[in-house]
Fold:
Amino acid sequence: MTEGTLNPRLQEIADDFNAMPGKERLQLLLEFSEELPALPGRYAADHDLLEPVPECQTPLFLAVEVEPDETVRLFFDAPPEAPTTRGFAGILHAGLDGLPADEVLATPGEFTSQLGLQDLVSPLRLRGMAAMLARIKRQIREQRA
Amino acid sequence: MTLPYDSAAKFQEYAHPQMIVSTEWVAEHLDDPGLVVAESDEDVLLYETGHIPGAVKLDWHTELNDAVTRDYVDGAGFARLMSEKGISRDTTLVLYGDRNNWWAAYALWVCSLFGHPDVRLMDGGRAKWIAEGRELTTVEPKRAETAYPVVDRDDTQIRAFKDQVVTHLGQPMIDVRSPGEYSGELLHMPDYPQEGALRGGHIPGAKSVPWARAAAEDATFRSRAELEAIYLGEAGLTQEDDVVVYCRIGERSSHTWFVLQHLLGFPQVRNYDGSWTEWGNSVRVPITRGANP
Structure:
């Protein structure tokens, strides 16, 4: 996989969004927010293990684990009254969780602009998702170092 | 057609009780033909998770702003937006939202720039409606499109621009941001680093009254006596003052504008919507750092 192209799962998500008329894209984002898995017990019990992402309008917390075989595991926590932030996290979870570290690192930072959400969500709000991705990549690099 | 006002005792103490209604009032009048309820939130998806039955969605980021220029929609744009939402010039428009009605107050302020004759806030907003266990629906209402007239936006009465704030220096101003933003320790609001500025601090002479002090624990507005203690007592404002309020992009200060103008009845209050993202990035405007005005 080369830098600048989306992995097949993220590409499919982007295609799904772009295939829909405007308002239905918000419904799809809402589905991603509802499908975001709950935190596993070890993180729920010790919230300090999670990294805050203050760029999201409602604070979101995330954790990244790189397994010995380089598989990336992603964990997110955001309150139900922040469905947009949860939806962004849900997209990243669906598109990146379980992939090899190199594939996650190759995700282009500007992929958030390929979902057709700018006019519906606003570029300012979308920056929250870009910030999540940037932190995920940084954590992977730190854990491999 | 104007709907009756909410006669709740708390509201009668406010200067303009016609500008505010309770959740009870909304529940009682939901089916009245002259009413449109609109939800305006920080989180653009909250409406989709469930909203007051019949309520339309009004989004500040994507609908009330001009898409290119840093400005609000113009008269034609506002008319188009209101028409699409099924709002007429004679509609009683009730706004509510998340976060103590912060964005709903912003939407109300923008509607006021166009002089919408009857626009009100639902006290307590979305949080109170939900806390009371009232009905929510995900069904989007299908309102017939209206022909809202094109009305010029009037920026002269309740809106202040940077040059006007420069000439206003020395007169009363309220900075409604957090104490850290006011003092200049933070270049952005806590948790909002993308809306930063190159310089930190506040406009010289502006007093610090964080916006949320006007809200009680249940997201409703504090009583008139409590608000007077804050704004007349602590901040030292008087009714004769020409007041400018500001925050970071003008949304939190819309909430304080509503409090001063409509709950306390100050005749001259302007919201400087350029706020700190303009002032803190401007060349050679005066800035004060630290906790004192």
Notes: Strands of chain A lie at 51-53, 60-66, 72-77.
